[in-house]
Amino acid sequence: MDLAGLLETDRSTVWHPYAAMPAPDPARLVTSASGACIDVVDPALGLVRLVDGMASWWSAVHGYRHPVLDRAATDQLGKMSHVMFGGLTHEPAIHLAERLVELAPGDLAHVFFSDSGSVAVEVAMKMCLQHWLSLGRPSKRRFLTWRGGYHGDTWSPMSVCDPEGGMHHHWSGLLAQQVFADVPPAGFDAEPDEAYRAQLRSLVAADADDLAAIIVEPVMQGAGGMRFHNPAYLRDLRALADEHDVLLIFDEIATGFGRTGAFFAAEHAGIAPDVMCVGKALTGGYLSMGATLCTPRVAAGIAAGEVPVLAHGPTFMANPLAAAIANASLDVLDTGAWSADVARIEAGLRSGLSPLADAPGVADVRVLGAVGVVQLDHDVDVAAATAAAIAAGAWLRPFRDLIYTTPPFLCTDEEIATITAAIAAAAAVA
Ligand SMILES: *Cc1c(COP(=O)(O)O)cnc(C)c1O
To answer: Cα(400) to centroid of ligand 1, in Å?
Structure first.
């Protein structure tokens, strides 16, 4: 099939994320990727090599075709790519679980593997509900979160996504009614806001008898609006959860594995949750895999019930190929180079993006770790912004009023400069 034929079949047959069917515009064809770059066929420019400013939505932290991850995939294919997990186990899963427990903050001693981030959040919420049910407190079945969050697109995660971004009005009466605090006040370094802390206190106290858990993205809200907040609010949530017998879930699916400058974002606050979700960069962006970690206390609560088993078991649970690649990704992270790389990228993003703060149409510029965000005072013209970024040499995927980057950690300073120039070009036409 020629290029035009491929793109027309794609447009009329294949659904894309958050897209209409059939799509009004064709997608761009990717032919290959290596290092920090993807090779893309652009309708105007032909085949171009672009720096991937998105790292395939936070996940490809080591870039593409990394030799260590490629070798792990090939070696594992020579043994088995999958085997069921009911009654069977294998070394890739055992090693990965052991390493996640070691890396995770606090006492997160047990690991439940699943196939994606959304399912990891489903499992986290189910763990908390079943914990209280098993302990004879069935009224504790609601979740508290703050507005502006994103936890995935399946049903339970949707109920704790930002009510407006998640379009809750579409689903009124169908989604569980959760408890929402306001969006956390902006700024990683901003002074904690006493009125906001009081709001968190009063919401948790008022609903404690009905609350199974508090669920938030620590330090950085991702797809819900790319906002950063002071880690002090996380310490408040930890204290409130302890005081009122509520569990605390951290969704580290976007923030985990170094993205914010700490290995897990919880470390910025110096506390640990009772349940933690990981995904996205877990396999270095090679395959879809999520995991939910919990403390012995959470597991013991479930085990105390009339039905002592956790009622969940995905077909592709702990997929050996994904687990082997995740172990290789952790091998690369274990060298510790990510920490200097993220600090270097943070500096590059700051120097490249801060001049944009005064540009027309720009409302805010913010950087934390290997995340750079330019917020406009209007919604982005995605088609125009994408074309401008591609002409400047980078792949970006803006949404709402946000042009942002989450680059692979192996980006050179030149590649980061290409990304920030592309963001500037996109902001100028958006
Ligand atoms: C992406 C994301 C999810 C959902 O993960 P999927 O793998 O897309 O299902 C959940 N929570 C956060 C914070 C995310 O960034």
So the answer is: 18
